[in-house]
Amino acid sequence: MSDPAPPLSRRPGAGPRAAAAIQDAALRLLAERGYTGLTMEAVAQEAGVNKTTIYRWWPSKPALLRAALTDGALLDFEVPDTGSLRGDLVALTERVVVLLTGARTESVVRAMTSGSGTSDDELAMLARDFFADRFSREQPVFRRAAERGELRPGADPMLLLDLMAGAVWVRAVLRRAPLPAGFAREVVDAVLPAFATVPPPGVNT
Looking at the UniProt feature table, which residue ranges are given for the DNA-binding region (predicted)? Predict the structure, then answer.
């Protein structure tokens, strides 16, 4: 069994700043050229590094994009801890709004989700891994809510998140309609009563 990869600061080639530039370049080119048009040579040129540096860290295009999507700064987020399930869900939904409407992130998310969805589609698998990573990171929100008694027994966190994110996606991506201020709160207040033991303030069940 081979030794695990060394920490980023000890890897050969360049340091964390170069790694961040490489990941950022990969996402920019994904948005501009699509997955098939993205090459390691183009990423190296865009980031201003030697191609061999990239290959020392990431052996393939999927490996580089997986790192850029899940660990890169562009799509990173902090898991909220507002003290209530509603507050946390509003914060998460607002993050989805930013991803789908932000000047730097919208085109990346669109490109990431443009795969065919088939089992042998590399881009579709990268998107699957990205959303699985995000769902895993969001689990503390639901653990805390369960401990506070805010979730109904048997409530499905993934369904709850899908309903909220889906509302943003349909409005912003499919309808190309503007998202008014407070849209995230409206979505959460419409969806949450089906999952929560206590309805959001002002919502009748």
Answer: 39-58
Q: Which two tokens stand for residue 100?
A: 């789908």
Model pLDDT, residue 204? 55
Tell me how many domains the chain contains: 2
pTM comes to 0.85
**Which residue segment(s) compose the domain that 189 sits in?**
85-195
Q: Which two tokens stand for residue 41?
A: 């040579």
Q: What are the tens digits of pLDDT across the range 88-109?
A: 999 999 999 999 999 999 999 9
Regarding whether 91 and 63 lie in a shared domain, the answer is no
Check if the beta carbon of residue 37 is closer than 8 Å to that of residue 113. Answer: no
Task: Give the CA distances from residue 186 to residues 89, 158, 179, in Å, rounded to whole numbers and listed in that order.
Answer: 11, 19, 11
pLDDT for 8: 40
The identity of residue 17, as a single letter, is: R
Residue 12: inside a domain: no
Burial class (CB in 10 A: 0-12, 13-18, 19+), 71: middle
List of residues 6+ apart from 156 with CB closer than 8 A: 195
Averaged pLDDT, 76-83:
95
Q: What's the CA gap between 121 and 171, in Å, rounded? A: 27
CA distance 105 to 110: 9
Residue 6 has pLDDT above 90, yes or no: no
